[in-house]
Amino acid sequence: MSDPRLTTWAKTLVEYSVRLQPGQLAVVAGGIAAEPLMRAIYKEIVAAGAHPVVVPNLTGLSAELLTHGSDEQLTWISPVEEMLRTKADVLFNILADTNTKSMAGVEPARQQMYSGARAPLMQAFLERSARDELRWVLTLFPTDAFAQDAELSTTDFSDFVFDAMHLNDPDPVARWREQSVEQQRLIDWLQGKSEVHLTGPGTDLTMSVADRVWINADGTHNFPDGEIFTGPVETSANGTVAFTYPVVTAGREVADIVLRFEDGKVVDARASKGDDYLQSTLETDAGARYLGELAFGTNMSIQRFSKNILFDEKIGGTIHMAIGAGYPETGNTNRSAVHWDMICDLRQGGQVTVDGQPFLVEGKYVV
């Protein structure tokens, strides 16, 4: 992929998203299909005076390990994995799958064993991020596989990606700063409020966000970005939520997920497709049945479902929740090897009230 926007993309990630400093250890990890972007980032890391390390990923290797490896091999942590989470100062993670279903044949229980062994690394990653010891950004390089999932040509999907990232703007950084100001306006209204009530088709759910911190996600961790999020009070969720879109994860599609909560815990769950994977994920550990995140999508440049959570959770006017690990900087203390985002689209016939006041009505922020 030869595109002058690659240089803009790399500069924006290095200078704006992670604010790279001389002497820092900067790791670039991603699928080999993203080689053009990896090279562009590498060039900017060198220009910034930092120390670049590249960790390329080959499609299918994880599936090989999870299918044929022993239990001991699945739970072994490589020094490279440990370095990414505990030693790097900056991490650029690039999604570039050439087969998004490569993990589809792996037994869910083996996937949970693999991820469960990495729970301490996940917690270390989250805590280092909360302390600003690790700056990281996750982005996506457009591949044929991602385009096929989105039911677009690769050219059209690439345009969708660049629009969502504001890379078609004359000054992408200025655009992200404008987005940050608008998101902060919403956060300022939410701060100090307590009860969140979601209603919509199949959904009637309440939870508390009392004394929790709302985070302004403005392109410094996800790219594209465009959300505000917090961690609900762990034992506060009560009611039912029906998630609108399929969740595509670990090579599987899980559709029509409905969760029922009592005192914060998922006590009933079902899905019309991939139910076995849903049930297995909820059994990963004690924290997998509790919410770690509540978020509102604010990127109005994203209005279509693409079967990729990096974009879909940012759809302007939607909400999403994650079961499992919470982000410590929000005040959420839930720990889990799982962090699984699910989207509830209330743009048609739904709303969110906060302390009884309308906040989001049919996809429009009304404060």
Strand % is: 25-35%
List low-pLDDT spans. none
Oligomer: single chain
Summed up, the helix count is 12
Give the overall shape: globular
How would you describe what is shown here?
With about 375 residues, the chain is an alpha+beta fold. The protein folds into two domains: about 5-165, Thermophilic metalloprotease-like (3-Layer(aba) Sandwich); about 180-365, no CATH class. It is built from twelve helices and 20 strands. α1 packs across α2.
Features:
367 residues; Thermophilic metalloprotease-like; 2 domains; eight-stranded antiparallel sheet
Summarize the structure.
The chain is α+β, with helices and mostly antiparallel strands and 367 residues long. It has twelve helices and 20 strands.
Topology overview:
Blueprint: H1 5-17, E1 25-31, H2 35-47, E2 51-57, H3 61-68, H4 71-75, H5 79-86, E3 90-95, H6 108-117, H7 119-130, E4 135-140, H8 144-149, H9 154-164, H10 172-190, E5 195-200, E6 203-208, E7 215-217, E8 222-223, E9 227-230, E10 238-242, E11 247-249, E12 252-254, E13 258-262, E14 265-270, H11 275-282, E15 291-297, H12 309-312, E16 319-324, E17 339-344, E18 351-354, E19 357-361, E20 364-365
Parallel strand pairs: 1-2, 1-3, 3-4, 4-8
Antiparallel strand pairs: 5-6, 5-18, 6-10, 7-9, 9-15, 10-13, 11-12, 13-14, 15-16, 16-17, 18-19, 19-20
Helix pairs in contact: 1-2, 5-7
